[in-house]
Design goal:
The protein is of the alpha/beta class. It is 43% helix and 19% strand. One of its GO terms (cellular component) is cytosol.
Length: 288
């Protein structure tokens, strides 16, 4: 299958391109230099020239705190840019997969969010604009996947695991929030799932994070240091005690993933297994 991937130089985009090519697909990766998604003419031109059967749209503004001071720019990327891609897909009859986020919900309560839940109430500019992207895709196309993910980490970019390991080298003690609950998502595992999904016509909304249960950022940090052999002490604090963040974060990022198996897709492995593989792949960065 001929598949175009936006955001191909990003953390997920790199792993997705690698997975698609490994499977023998004709994968075309583009980033801002090849196709500026905020420029409708650029998007139409590239997609009409490539003529992909499917587009996996990974490109996004993901700096959550910085988004609060750049709402117009963020909306141009996450909402307008996504609509440009959706309209270009419609013009050539291509299916589209949009990578979204748990931030479209308000994070209240303790029940896992269902993929087909429409009780949207994003707390931040990032969440609002990603939701606007979702609505643009669903309002433009019939053949689409909207896949929400959370707590993403991979070898190719900035993420919580890399940050913890970096801080753990120089700090004997760290404060980490304990009242935000979710599950990590490892990009190579997610790439495998997305490659499985894109060749099907099982369209709709899905949630995709690794298996292994729901944890806090504090729990995740403790596991990172234990597996890396660091002696860094981790202190649990509430979001209010931690402060610092400009954008509001959802407390409840539990995503129900049962629709994946119900649709015949193989769920992602346990996040602990994923963390072990990540640490092995990035050993040169963090081994002291």
């Amino acid at each position: 299958m001929k598949i175009l991937v936006t955001g191909a130089k990003g953390q997920l985009g790199k792993d997705l391109m690698r997975e698609l090519l490994r499977r023998g697909h004709e994968a075309v990766g583009v980033d801002v230099d090849e196709m500026d998604i905020t420029d409708a003419a650029s998007v139409r031109r590239v997609i009409s020239e490539v003529k992909p059967e499917a587009v996996i749209h990974c490109a996004a503004w993901t700096a959550v705190d910085a988004a609060e001071d750049n709402e117009d720019k963020v909306r141009l990327v996450n909402a307008v840019g996504t609509k440009n891609v959706a309209e270009a897909c419609k013009a050539i009859g291509a299916k589209m997969m949009y990578i979204s986020t748990d931030y479209v919900f308000d994070g209240k309560g303790t029940e896992p969010w269902q993929p087909d839940c429409k009780d949207y109430a994003p707390l931040s500019v990032y969440g609002k604009t990603k939701l606007e992207g979702e609505l643009a895709v669903a309002g433009t196309l019939d053949k689409y996947f909207i896949v929400r993910i959370a707590w993403v980490f991979g070898a190719g970019g900035k993420n919580f695991v890399r940050t913890m390991l970096s801080l753990g080298k120089t700090h004997g003690e760290l404060r980490v929030v304990c009242d935000q609950i979710g599950t990590p998502t490892y990009t190579p595992d997610l790439a495998r799932l997305l490659a499985d999904m894109i060749v099907t016509d099982k369209y709709g909304y899905y949630h995709a994070t690794n298996e292994g249960g729901y944890i806090s950022w504090y729990d995740f940090a403790c596991e990172i240091f234990a597996r890396a052999g660091y002696t860094t002490k981790v202190l649990p604090v509430t979001t209010a005690e931690y402060g610092l963040s400009k954008a509001a974060r959802p407390f409840n990022s539990r995503l129900d993933k049962s629709k994946l198996a119900a649709s015949g897709f193989e769920p992602l492995p346990d996040w602990r297994d994923a963390l072990t593989r990540y640490l092995e792949e990035t050993k040169e960065e963090w081994v002291r």
